[in-house]
Amino acid sequence: MGLWNWIVSKISGKGSSLNAINSTRMITLDPFLIANNANKEANSTYMSCINAYQKALSKIKPTLFYKGKPEDSDPTNYLLQVKPNKVQNAVNFWKQVAFSYFANNVAAIWLEWDYGGRIPILKSLYCIDVTATNFEIKELDGNIYYQFNLNDKTIVSKSDEMIILVNSPSLQNPYVKNNEALNMLVNTINANYEGLQKVLKLANVVRFIAQSTQPLKPEDLQKRQQQISDQVAKVDGSGIFYIDNSQSIQQVTNQAKWATPDDVKIMNSEIYSYFGIPEAVVKGQAADDIYQAWVEQSIEPITMELEDELNSKLLTKTEREFGNKYLIDASKIYTASLTHRIQLSNALVASGGYSYNEIRKILGLELVSDDNNKFIERIDRVDTSQNNDEVNQDNKEVTENE
After folding, report:
1. Within 13 Å, how many C-alpha atoms sit on residue 352's CB side?
2. Which is nearest to 332 in space by CA: 82, 58, 92, 63?
3. Mutual orientation of helices 261-275 and 44-57 as an angle, nearest 10°?
4. CB–CB of 374/355 below 8 Å?
5. Using CA atoms, how far apart are residues 16 and 8, in angstroms rounded to an integer?
6. pLDDT tens, 78-112?
7. Average of per-residue pLDDT across 378-396
8. Other CB atoms closer than 10 Å to residue 189's CB: what's the count?
9. What is residue 269's predicted lDDT score, i.e. its pLDDT?
10. Long-range CB contacts for residues 303-309, cutoff 8 Å, separation at least 24
């Protein structure tokens, strides 16, 4: 039984065909997703911003927790953290999701289930290209379906089998947002660089115009042009060459105008503002507090949205009621200097209530086993009597030896 037949039988209890969906289209993605007139990927600042988000989100580790403890043996953890599908590892997969989220404003993940057994098993996850012309959202009997091509096959998936992450949805269409301001900005920057390229090409091709006082035959014109070209090329160190009064030469000067470096800098800063990312983060020069603020403001909302989708699509209501949930470990996204990490660790150790592994994780050290992963007491509550007795005993042994 195919996936589509299984879906239809579960929903309506009777067979159906793909044409039934094709006859009633409910939602279509905004045309901007299909054909965007702004070639944003040609802009280095635009791509650098997306690349920074890709690198950050590639470090996430979605993990299933069972009653507050990580369920390491759950096979979905392997899919989410190591190998989501046959052709991608987790790092590249989450990079692809991040690119679609910021470049296309929508990231669509298809959850491929194996319905052959008593309990459905998640086989793989695929990030779907929402800009493809064959990606459509349709409605049938009050249910939303997604239709797309994957590996030369047409897939029809119910909404429960799709994780949809949306970047700032609009009220008119929950799947897209209007970013005409960004399109106009990128078009302006691209047009400026295209103008510079044309000027440089023109300067290399046409530098002088030679004019004769009388009409010439085509063959004579080519001959005269070659003579003048040879004369210009063979000019000695004086920089002077001689022509008679039968011809005149005029140098071609360019009067084109283009944006100044300050103008381009202002336009690039607007792209940084659009993405909500400091320029220092893109260039890898951000201080700890600036980077921390960017992660909290721009990265954490995405991870929270993904957690909600994972919990609603991968867990049943009963499983959620028993305390199961997916949490995203984003600790590797946070980068801090060693000095800052030591200061933070000292403060946490002094306050107490943190385990050895939590402190070691901040310092970038390997985690210890559960037997040694104890909670650290506050410094003012630590019983130092045993340590004092050991010190006194050591001092006594030293004295006796002397």
Report:
1. 6
2. 58
3. 30
4. yes
5. 6
6. 999 999 999 999 999 999 999 999 988 889 999 99
7. 51
8. 24
9. 86
10. 303/57, 303/60, 303/328, 303/330, 305/165, 306/60, 306/62, 306/163, 306/165, 307/62, 309/163, 309/164, 309/165
Between CA 346 and CA 359 the distance in angstroms is 9
Please state, in angstroms and rounded to a whole number, the distance separating the CA atoms of residues 156 and 150.
10
Beta strands in 129-261 (DSSP E): 136-140, 143-150, 153-158, 162-166, 208-212, 247-251
Q: Are strands 324-329 and 121-128 parallel, antiparallel or unpaired?
A: unpaired
Contact 305, 165 (CB under 8 A): yes
* Distance in Å from the first CA to the final CA of the chain: 88
Q: In 352-385, which positions are buried (b, 16+ CB within 10 angstroms) versus exposed (e)?
A: eeebbbbbebbeeeeeeeeeeeeebeeeeeeeee
Pairwise CA distance, residues 231 & 211, whole Å: 15
- Rounded to an integer, the average pLDDT of 361-370 is 72
- Alpha-carbon distance of 327 to 319, in angstroms, equals 14
pLDDT confidence bin for 24, thresholds 50/70/90: very low
Tell me: the pLDDT tens digits for 178-236? 566 666 666 666 666 565 555 555 555 556 677 777 777 888 778 877 877 777 666 66
pLDDT at 360 over 60: yes
256 pLDDT above the threshold of 60: no
CA 158 to chain centre: 26
Could you tell me which of 119, 96, 118 has the C-alpha nearest to residue 110? 96
What per-residue confidence (pLDDT) applies to 16? 36
Are 40 and 50 in contact by the 8 Å Cβ rule? The answer is no
Neighbours of 70 (CB within 10 A): 14
